[in-house]
Amino acid sequence: MNVPLRVRMTAWYAGLLALVIAALGAFVVVRLRADLTRSIDDVLRPATAQIRQDVRVEGVPEFADSARTVLKGERAAGQLVTPDGSIRATFGDAVADRPMATRTELTAALGGREPMRSRTMGPSRDDFRLTALGVDHRGRRYVIVTAQSLEPVDRSVGRVVRLLLLAGPVALLAVALGGSWLAGRSLRPIEEITSTAEAIGVDRLEARVLVARSNDEVAHLGRTLNTMLDRIQHGVEEQRRLVADTSHELRTPLATMRSELDVSLRTDDLSPAASEILLSTREEVDRMSRTVDDLLTLAAIDDGVLGLRLEDTDLGELAEAVAGALEAVGRRRDVTIEHDGPPVTVRADPVRLGHAVRNVVENAIEFTAPGGTVRITTSFVGTTGRLVVEDEGPGVPPALRERVFDRFFRVDPSRSRATGGSGLGLAITRAIVVAHRGRVYAAGRKRGSAFVVELPAALGASESAPAPPRVTPL
Length: 474
Prior knowledge:
Order of helices and strands: HHEEHEEEHHHEHHEEHEEHHEE
CATH superfamily of the largest domain: PAS domain
Oligomer: single chain
CATH class of the largest domain: Alpha Beta
Strand order of the largest sheet: 2-1-5-4-3
Number of strands: 12
CATH architecture of the largest domain: 2-Layer Sandwich
Distance between the termini: 28 Å
Structural class: alpha+beta
């Protein structure tokens, strides 16, 4: 699935931020619990030391009074325990009614150590913080055990966890939205560069992408693209100039050669073999002349100087003129050219449009087998004038119906120049038709091919005859 870069950047940013928030929240919770527990320890230690001092001086009866004075924490509890674990005195919470310290902890306290433990105690299994100190009174040894509930710690930590769970997603959503906005803003110059670059074609090589006044990576990308476009434009213009100049230079010698061949063919003393050779040479000169004219037309199209002279043009008359001009070509290939249809008036340049239609008909003649027929029909389709050229050739595969209009493209690359043409005719036809705000396309037929030319009808023109057989566009 093609996920936009902006969405992916936002998702990665939000995911990373979620991990950071989770790690930071865990650290805060753990650290808060440790600090609050330490604060209880800081209260229990001096309180237990004070009780020990009082018991050492005054004895067992002083335990309760001393504990009541110094143990002020929530659910504070205290015990005076003999070395064997017997409880001699208690204070505070009900958990003091049962032994709070283990034998190991009692032994450690009698040995001079001060164990600090967190333990679950009492019927309700509540958490307490516990410590113990050994004390001697007139030769008798006791252990003072004190404890304080960890409920304040749990409440504080729970409150922080709830705040994190509530505020974390909200903060994450806000940051994700902000990150999406920032990502969109950061990518907007790239999107503008991409849109501009996509719109630049052979007919818009002078266009350039907009470069921001900065020294960041996006500006560098824009400048690089513009430099590349400069090189491409220069190369294409040089190529066009070469084609145009060469074509102009070839027109005069080709015209001279044709005139000399015509003069030679009019002489009466030519042998049949010589006459055949001169006729073949004249056909090649004609072919080269048409190719040169095609190249000049393409150069004019590329330079935007096609120079259409629009007037009311009848497609029926145009089809009749093209059929008459190519009658000799069809006769040589044993192909019949037929034309039919009502008058169809469009706004067009008759010379340029005639060139376009001639290219299509010539293409149809080339691919029609001897004995076949090329049909030219005209009709109105709504407010559109239509001209259809149908042949009885091998047809155009559906996958190539668009590519046949590319320059120098041939359906079968192995075809020779005699059967495949130069590959420019249909490209010129499309360029001329598009310049007339029309369209041309290859349509499907059960046998052969059908090329359809559609142009806007002239003002006042309307459907006056049935449409020709329906064709299926791409």
